[in-house]
């Protein structure tokens, strides 16, 4: 995007951009501002210096997302940086590389989360990163030919994906001769991996020496499918299928936010309230299944906690089905609002929602009795899987995983959207950073989501009948301005769910990048499991609450 109207129309942002440009000095080649962030095009050999300067001197300590893409004349990597203290402070660091030699410096020495993000960029787009500690494919098999999101990729070429022989990853390493070091495959078809996750674990007896999460078993080309779909009608059904467990309204909102930003679409206040209510019902559904499956992992609580949690999730899904017409893949949001108003009879639906909320406090007491005060559960979870706050920030962790480490970061409050800034609620944090803390955060967030839904209901009941506008007037065909770029995010059930879109002036995106909270959260698994027992590794996996459909996309 050319440096034009965006920052000039916002003096504060323009001043901030000039200050940053002066701070970065000769590393900046030119400006390339995005719709919601100042952008700087820098030399590919200055990546680490620029990112370290922005982190240490300007407070951009959150590498939120890394986007790679190809233009006809260059490759490009974009590091989307934010501040954990104020996520509305954003900056885009754009790194161009030549088509003939797409190599730039790795950001991994500055932000550990860039390890996985740059591996994905190499895998799908074909950009190489010098100084990267482990530059290999992450989603596609090692034997895959070509890079699917590069312009030169031949989609018709045959792919012969051979089964490579398993090699011992610790061969040649120096170990104590008396140790019992072994290599253990966990998953991808193991019930405690919560999906097709393969963990390559190196053990010394029962102690985890290292754990390498191996992902990509359910990669479905979601970004490319969105790039082939139209903004107005065809993209919205896809987000439901990323994190299908958290109920897709949270996912749909991520796409709605970035598309409405690009097309400058206003959403009616009444529709914002319905969106907020539906999103918090989705969060309830997600946290219920997270608690139930975690109890199953830790103490084998199938007969009580798991079944209670699934029962309560089903009650929430009944409400979402009544609202949207579907039980799993909702496709309820529309650009500019929602598909339709509350179901009729309206009073009956509102009474049903209140009925579920009224029964929640007693049920949460049951969960506390079954889990929080359970001595076995405590021994499995307290002081295991400890994630220190600075490590969480280095890996770009968000959501309950970050808040369980005391990081007070929640986009609903810190980068307000929808109707959240008009409602009363609290961001939940726990200080200890262990598996137990992450469970406590989700349990307490159930109460906060219920408070938000209750307030939305009160507003919807009192709303005048003749002012129930569910959608703004949106053109049948949307064609955002060519070269407009925007990264927008919402607070999903698992954390920051963001989307970067670049427009080329047509009705389909030129680039559509999904920032999955599960992707970044899962990358921290080795850090919280080294030195733990194998059983603690299982507990740590469950505490991250990752859905592999969203990790792989």
Automatic annotation (TrEMBL):
The keyword Transport applies. GO terms for molecular function: NAD binding; NADH dehydrogenase (ubiquinone) activity; oxidoreductase activity, acting on NAD(P)H; quinone binding. It is found in: Cell membrane. The keyword Membrane applies. Residues 41-157 form the NADH:ubiquinone oxidoreductase 30kDa subunit domain. It is a peripheral membrane protein. Residues 300-553 form the NADH-quinone oxidoreductase subunit D domain. NDH-1 is composed of 13 different subunits. Subunits NuoB, CD, E, F, and G constitute the peripheral sector of the complex. This is NADH-quinone oxidoreductase subunit NuoD.
């Amino acid at each position: 995007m050319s440096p034009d109207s965006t920052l000039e129309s916002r003096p504060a942002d323009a001043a901030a951009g000039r200050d940053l440009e002066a701070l970065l000095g000769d590393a900046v080649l030119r400006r390339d501002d995005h719709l919601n962030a100042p952008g700087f095009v820098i030399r590919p050999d200055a990546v680490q210096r620029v990112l370290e300067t922005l982190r240490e001197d300007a407070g951009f300590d959150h590498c939120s997302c890394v986007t790679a893409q190809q233009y006809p004349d260059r490759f490009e990597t974009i590091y989307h940086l934010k501040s954990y203290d104020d996520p509305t402070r954003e900056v885009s660091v754009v790194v161009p590389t030549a088509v003939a030699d797409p190599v730039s410096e790795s950001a991994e020495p500055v932000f550990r989360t860039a390890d996985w993000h740059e591996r994905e960029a190499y895998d799908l787009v074909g950009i190489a990163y010098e100084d990267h500690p482990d530059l290999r494919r992450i989603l596609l098999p090692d034997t895959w030919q070509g890079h699917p999101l590069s312009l030169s990729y031949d989609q018709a070429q045959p792919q012969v994906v051979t089964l490579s022989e398993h090699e011992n990853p610790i061969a040649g390493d120096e170990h104590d001769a008396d140790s019992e070091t072994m290599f253990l495959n966990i998953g991808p078809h193991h019930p405690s991996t919560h999906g097709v996750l393969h963990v390559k674990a190196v053990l010394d007896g029962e102690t985890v020496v290292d754990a390498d999460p191996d992902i990509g078993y359910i990669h479905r080309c979601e970004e490319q499918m969105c790039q082939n779909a139209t903004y107005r009608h065809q993209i919205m059904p896809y987000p439901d299928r990323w994190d299908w467990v958290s109920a897709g309204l949270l996912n749909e909102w991520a796409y709605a936010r970035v598309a409405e930003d690009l097309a400058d679409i206003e959403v009616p206040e009444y529709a914002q309230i319905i969106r907020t209510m539906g999103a918090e019902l989705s969060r309830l559904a997600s946290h219920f299944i997270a608690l139930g499956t975690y109890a199953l992992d830790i103490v084998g609580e199938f007969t009580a906690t798991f079944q209670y949690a699934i029962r309560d999730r089903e009650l929430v899904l009944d409400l979402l089905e009544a609202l949207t017409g579907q039980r799993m893949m909702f496709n309820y949001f529309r650009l500019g609002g929602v598909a339709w108003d509350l179901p009729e009879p309206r009073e009956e639906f509102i009474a049903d929602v209140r009925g579920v909320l009224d029964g929640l406090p007693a049920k949460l007491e049951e969960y506390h009795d079954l889990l929080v005060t359970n001595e076995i559960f405590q021994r499995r979870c307290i002081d295991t899987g400890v994630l220190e706050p600075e490590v969480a920030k280095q890996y770009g962790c968000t959501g309950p995983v970050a808040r369980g480490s005391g990081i007070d970061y929640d986009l609903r409050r810190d980068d307000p959207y929808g109707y959240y800034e008009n409602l009363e609620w609290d961001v939940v944090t726990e200080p200890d950073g262990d598996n137990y803390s992450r469970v406590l955060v989700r349990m307490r967030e159930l109460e906060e989501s219920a408070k938000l839904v209750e307030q939305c209901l009160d507003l919807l009941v009192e709303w005048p009948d003749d002012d129930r506008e569910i959608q703004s007037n949106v053109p049948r065909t949307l064609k955002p301005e060519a070269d407009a770029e925007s990264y927008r995010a919402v607070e999903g059930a698992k954390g920051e769910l963001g989307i970067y879109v670049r427009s080329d002036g047509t009705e389909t995106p030129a680039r559509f990048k999904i920032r999955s909270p599960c992707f970044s959260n899962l990358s921290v698994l080795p850090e919280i499991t080294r030195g733990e027992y194998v059983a603690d590794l299982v507990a740590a996996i469950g505490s991250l609450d990752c859905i592999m459909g969203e990790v792989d996309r």
